[in-house]
Amino acid sequence: MWRRTAPAIAVAVAALWAGDAAAYSVYVSNEKGNSITVIDSETLTVIKTVPVGRRPRGITISPDGKSLYIAASDEDGVEVIDTATMTVARTLQSGPDPELFILHPTGNPLYIANEDDAQVTVVDVDKNQILAQVPVGVEPEGMGISPDGGMLVNTSETTNMAHFIDTASFQVVDSVLVDSRPRFAEFNKDGSKLWVSAEVGGTVTVIDPKTRAILKRITFAIPGVTPEAIQPVGVRVTRDGKTAFAALGPANRVAVIDGNSFEVTKYLLVGQRVWQLAFTPDEKYLFATNGNSNDVSVIDVAAMKVIKTIPVGEAPWGVVVAPK
Amino acid sequence: MLNRRSALKVLNGAVVGLAAAAVFGPPAGAAAQAAPLEVTLGALMRKRPPPPLYEIDPVPPDEGAAGAALAAVDNNTTGRFTQQHYTLNQMVLEGGQAAPEAAAKLVDGGAGFLLVDLGPDELLAVVDALKGRDAVIFNVSAADDRLRGADCRGRLFHVAPSRAMLTDALAQYFAAKRWSKLFLIVGPKPGDALYAEAMRASARKFGLKIAAEKPWEFGPLARARGDSVTQADALVFTRGTDYDIMVVADEAGDFGDYIPFRTWDARLVAGTQGLVATSWHRAQDAWGSAQLQSRFYKEAKRFMRPVDYQAWTAMRAVGEAVTRLKSASPSAVADYLVSDAFQLAAFKGVPVTFRPWDRQLRQPILLAQPSAIVGVAPLPGFLHQRTVLDTLGTDLPETACHQT
Questions:
Q1: CB B94 within 8 A of CB B340
Q2: Shortest alpha-carbon distance between residue A243 and chain B (Å)
Q3: Domain limits, chain B
Q4: What residues does B274 pair with on adjacent strands?
Q5: A288: part of which helix (H) or strand (E)?
Q6: Class assignment of domain B164-276?
Q7: A288-302 pLDDT tens trace
Q8: Of B336, B150, B398, B121, the residue nearest B139 (C-alpha)
């Protein structure tokens, strides 16, 4: 950590000089602002705000960084934004009320959770064609995909399950019961573990994706915060699998979890009702959306500290960082 | 296209406009399955009397039933993955039909769980008639505190909030706003007296004062037409009292809506009208409620009402217990519902659970004006050693329920 000992001016100069290599665009969907806020990951300032369709929630980006996908829930479509011009290039069929989605690691197809209709819609993003609609539990939301793209996981909020879907046959091959209102599913980069958050249950369940056995049910306890306020939503795991982060909703904390022992090592204080998280590709920063304080907290991953809060649009929901 | 029609059957009496039984297949591609676990529930209610004249928001004929039907669809969607199938048999009682016989018929037909939307006396008659049968009964509409107190029964669960929970929720809000002097207007009907009694108890509990209390003696003025003659006495009868907020006890909605803007002093109105305490409200959209509201609207073609929500919650509580237990035994489900293991996501931001001492559903209570949510009780700062939800309603030390 050379930065800790370097004089402040040197840090600033170095940061500017290094800007070309490490500046990523961070995109935040503002659910009630009907807009996307673009943040520069190096200066940590808002570059621009772009209007999109009604109630943007899920947000992701193509592996080449050229296309930004927004689930405009109240428009019943997925908007594709050209990141060069930041305008809506086209709208994909999505099935009704798209909330969250995930791209295949190759960038196609897109797997969309249709919250009102108990199904997952699979869309070819190049041809704008629906390839399959897979019936799942009530209020599907969280979407995760194995790094090899073979296994899709969807969580259904009222059914309280993680459904394992074979991406070749589009069939549900297994379903694992977790705690109440599962919101999010995240694989380790080596495919060895699956993390599923349960918002009302207040837990994160770690599942072995091969055997579908539950490895651990992680609980949280924060002094001065009632257990009911601890509502895990977004989960992210570092590339090396050593650390996981879980956004705890109205507890206004991001939990830091040891990726092997599953012990909670720290709680980071962020804004109000923190929901979704995204790393920069170099994993230097983790961005957290705070839906009730209308801002984004920036976590320095190496230092495990919140270093800045950036005001964005109304009710920030999701966040994604450009790959380059 | 996914088949999402309900599994509701109407056995007797009036058909209430809901789709009949549907077939729920196993999820495509799942491994070959054994026969699904069949779970049969009954719903018992009385045919609604026609609405009074000039009712702006009449009770729909399928109130409650529509909520249970949606939960049956939800349970069956989950059941496709857990090999469980739920059937809801509904009985709508006409004029002279007796509730206990109808309830026994539902249980004879295989229902282990009954959702009952009846008044307190008929509800108790049903529960007592089923004594010794393996059946669990859910009270989905009666707010009477005695059902949770001296008249409680072992297999009777309450999903509807009690009057004490509703008035405690309002009292917490008044206390938080420091509106400590209440003017209570009590209607002529038996429920109004009970509501007033609950409000007095809540005032004592949260350190508020009843500065004045008057009976309402001017008739159902809220149902009067715009060109009716103004009743001078009704306009001045709140004069001469120092108070912070007017509280009306008018469960039938006959006069409460006449009071706002007609008080002598410029004061707000709460209670059964004005700012109300309720389990559900059409303006509620936090904690994923927007999804439940829109699913309900799609199925029922109207907004979800509190009794619909309560019936939905009862049906889902059974579904959740059966899913976790992998058993549809009513006695096993009853034991599970009051255990620490049970919790249900019910779109209120926190899990809802049952109080083991009186089997009342613990739940946040919404405080709402006609088209907006004003607050949610428990209000911040009202603490409890067990759960803050137990600041609402009758707590363990004061319970008069000694049936377990």
A1: no
A2: 28
A3: 4-161+281-363, 164-276
A4: none
A5: strand A285-290
A6: alpha beta
A7: 999 999 999 999 999
A8: B121
> What is the number of other CB atoms lying within 10 angstroms of the CB of residue A301?
18
Cβ contact B148:B162 at 8 Å: yes
Contact between A39 and A26 under an 8 Å Cβ cutoff? The reply is yes
- CA atoms of B362 and B158, how far apart (whole Å): 9
pLDDT at B372 over 70: yes
Give the C-alpha separation, A139 to A115, whole Å: 5
- Of B54, B81, B11, residue with least CA distance to B257: B54
Per the DSSP assignment, residues forming a β-bridge with A73 are none
Query: Under CATH, which architecture does the B4-161+281-363 domain have?
Result: 3-Layer(aba) Sandwich (3.40)
Adjacent-strand bridge partners of B213: B184
Q: Which residue of A has its CA nearest to B26?
A: A135
Q: ipTM of the predicted structure?
A: 0.80
DSSP-assigned letters across all residues of B22-43: ---PPPTTPPP-PPPEEEEEEE
Interface test with B, best of A54, A134, A153, A158 (most B CBs within 10 A): A158
Contact between residue A320 and residue A306 where contact means Cβ atoms under 8 Å apart: no
Q: What is the pTM of this model?
A: 0.87
Instruction: Read off the pLDDT of residues A230-245 as tens digits, 9 standing for 90 and up.
Output: 999 999 999 999 999 9
User: Which residue type, as a one-letter code, is found at position A143?
Assistant: M
**Partner-chain contact A135 B78, CB within 8 Å:** no
